[in-house]
Amino acid sequence: MKKILAFISLLFLMVACSSTEKVVSSSSGSSSSSRGSSVSRNQTTVRNIGKFQVDSNSYVATGKNERIQFIVVHYTATDNVGSIKELTSSRVSSHFLVLDEDDNKIYNLVPLEQRAWHAGASAFRGRTNINDTSVGIEIVSDGIAREYRPDPNPYHPYDHYVDYKPVQIEKTAQIIKYVAEKYNVPARNIVAHSDIAPSRKKDPGAKFPWKELYDKYNIGAWYDESDKQTFMDEEKFKATSIREIKDELRKYGYEINRLDEWDKESKDVVYAFQLHFNPKNATGEMDLETFAILKALNKKYPD
Question: Cα–Cα distance between 259 and 251 in angstroms, integer?
Fold first, then answer.
């Protein structure tokens, strides 16, 4: 009788274990670079659905990708209390929050597999509605200093923006590095909110140190100085039409109209580009240096 009971118990255990199986898939080789890598991650394989067996091995699709394609950096434009209240409301949210505190905490507000509401109407590199395919990082900062906010000039200069604390930049860099490596996010897809919504947003602003993240943490995209100097050609710049320059901005990823003029919408895009790649010369006006940086970036990142 004891042998029969033991056999029945073993049978029930085998049936229970066969319903689902947690597996870890690992790629052959990995890279520590945040500009694109494949790493191990967990996935759940279903074994049975109702009375039917699910075969996950005979036919495996190759046409697939990760939900997370972009990392978007923001500032909150308010203090810690206001940021927490807003980002835990039912109106907006982000995956991560970096407070204005010298501590060792990073706050995860939305699970990475879920969609946060941080990007709004947005587009970059041919994709729209970036909330669907991104991770959002909010950093507590006033962004533009309060005394400069009434300035009627929509293109605030570098000195109007507030400095970030070094620990905020370190935390943000570690978040970006983690997410970029986990989901193989391309360098050009690590962007500012202003990059994807240039007529609405200016965050994370001119004081966010994109070059430091590139140099120190191997994160994101940046141009080579030698290429920039090659394109610092006044005659070539003057001979390039507005439409051709807009094509270069579009090639890098920005959404911009095809009008043969620098209208307000187009200047917004130029300003967004400058905030990211030429922040101390952010004016909204296309100039030789901005043109040379744009050309250098498209040379370095042709795809």
Answer: 16
d(CA 176, CA 191): 10
pLDDT band at 35 (very low <50, low <70, confident <90, very high): low
**Short-list 155, 148, 171, 162, CA closest to 207:** 162
Contact between residue 246 and residue 258 where contact means Cβ atoms under 8 Å apart? yes
Helices 288-300, 264-277: axis angle to 10 degrees equals 70
Contact 264, 283 (CB under 8 A): no
Residue 100 has phi, psi (to 5 degrees) of -90, 60
Q: 21, 86, 101, 138: which is the annotated catalytic residue?
A: 138
Q: In the numeric block, which tokens belong to residue 10?
A: 């073993």
| pTM for the predicted model, two decimal places | 0.83
Residue 261 annotated to the active site: no
| DSSP structure string for 51-85 | TEEP-SSS--------S--EEEEEE-SS-HHHHHH
Please, are residues 110 and 95 in contact by the beta-carbon 8 Å criterion? yes
> What is the Cα 172 distance to its own chain's centre?
11
pLDDT digits (tens, 9 = 90+) for 112-149: 999 999 999 999 999 999 999 999 999 999 999 999 99
3 state SS for 187-252: HHHEEEHHHHCCCCCCCCCCCCCHHHHHHHHCCCCCCCHHHHHHHCCHHHHHHCCHHHHHHHHHHH
